[in-house]
Amino acid sequence: MTIIGERIKQLRKQHGMTQTDLAGEHMTKSMLSQIENGKALPSMRTLQYLAEKLGEDAGYFLGEEDEHGITELVREIEMDSKRKSYEEVVRKVEPLLDTKLPMTIDVARIMEFYAEACFHTVHRGGEEAVQRAVEIYKRFGLYVESAKAKYLNYAHLFAQAKYGSSLDLIREVRREYEHKKIGRDVIFELDLYYAEAVSLSALGLNKESRDAMLAALDLSKEQEVYYMTDHFLRILSNEFYESGEKDKAAEYRNKARVFAEFTGNQDNLAYIEIAEARVMNREGRYEEALAHIENVARIQQKKSAVYWRELGVYYYNTGQAEAALDAFSRVVMPETAYHPSDKSYLYAADAYMARLYAAKGQIREARELSARAREKVKDFPHNRARAFIDDTYLELHKSE
Predict the structure, then answer these.
(1) Alpha helices of 100-245 — where are they, by DSSP H?
(2) Does one domain contain both 151 and 95?
(3) 234-257 per-residue burial string, b: 16 or more CB within 10 A, e: under 16
(4) Spatial distance between the Cα atoms of 275 and 315, rounded to a whole number of angstroms
(5) What is the pTM of this model?
(6) Are 301 and 396 in a shared domain?
(7) Do the beta carbons of residue 343 and residue 376 sit within 8 Å?
(8) Rounded (to 5) percent helix, strand, coil in the chain
(9) Which helix (DSSP H) or strand (DSSP E) does residue 72 occupy?
(10) Which residues contact 64 (CB under 8 A, 6 or more apart)?
């Protein structure tokens, strides 16, 4: 019997509860029996459920003593993370990194929150934090939690453009999870599908990427858990459009809009408006494109790089050269733009500017801009934006 199982059994008996009482609807009586007898280890979600039912913190079952005030700190950091106050998470955790922290589950959770915050704030140290969390979870035999912590490193690999390594990691984590899991963690499975899909598309494996996203949507419907649905719908819409399947693209774009309107998420609504504007610009429906761009301006407090890029395309296609140059000059690559398709899309602003300068007879400036854009996307998979950048470069340099 493990210390976890022993303490669960002792406390259950102290409360006068049967295994059926404690298991409730969360798990079967048989599974609880296996946990109590050390034949299975609970996931953190199950452990937190049991702790709540038995009136204890999860740390009690893991033999932890909170000598450093870690329990209260992890609650604070969890709330900061939920509010997306990632700078605050980094500020609170960084002073602890050089101290001798105990090997406890709460410390592992702090390391996970810190690793996520490092990614969102472009701080270094996230990968080391993940490793500390993995070591702690393995110490307690929480192998599923270890796999979940390891998953966080996918984002750091992706940010370094190590897309193949990112995909390998996700598939390794999936194997570990499938081998060690006791029950299903649908949210984590959807996270894995998302990470796999974006890694595949970054490598140019677009059909495989779509298959992963469609599998994720099937899982969401089956389990009635609509986590990440907005992301899957938006990305699928773009993927189908890029592959020439316009009807499919429109179907998923409409679904994404309905979902965004239902949830009232302003960021998602802005993304949908930009997607609509992009399609309208490509199809020559420029006044409709402008209407969607103006909707984005109403939704966003601060105009984003994609807003300026699409506004520039509208001006470019309607013969408003100076306005287009002004809009394209405002396109600044966000620090958190990591996907090669997103980068190609924004780097294309330089190619548009190059064409505008060439039309004004400023050939040297035009060639410099087109060369800069081409250099930035030379290692990216083929996509519509990259093709535009390459064509611009070739047109402007063919007479050299």
Answers:
(1) 105-121, 126-139, 143-151, 153-159, 163-180, 186-202, 206-223, 229-242
(2) yes
(3) bbbbbbbbbeeeeebbeebbebbb
(4) 17
(5) 0.79
(6) no
(7) yes
(8) 75, 0, 25
(9) helix 70-82
(10) 102, 104, 105, 106
Residues 272 and 323 in one domain: yes
- 37 shares a domain with 135: no
**Helix, strand, or coil here: 306?**
helix
In this predicted structure, the answer to whether residue 211 has a pLDDT above a threshold of 80 is yes
Angstrom distance (rounded) from CA 59 to CA 132:
17
Task: Please say which residue of 317, 332, 347 terminates a domain.
Answer: 332
Express each pLDDT in 345-362 by its tens digit: 999 999 999 999 999 999
Between CA 92 and CA 81 the distance in angstroms is 12
Give the structural domain span for 162. 67-183
Q: Is the pLDDT of residue 204 over 70?
A: yes
Distance (Å, rounded) from C-alpha 18 to C-alpha 363? 82
Q: Which two tokens stand for residue 43?
A: 């996931």
Q: Same domain for 228 and 143?
A: no
Query: Can you tell me the distance from the alpha carbon of 377 to that of 379, in angstroms, rounded to the nearest whole number?
Result: 6
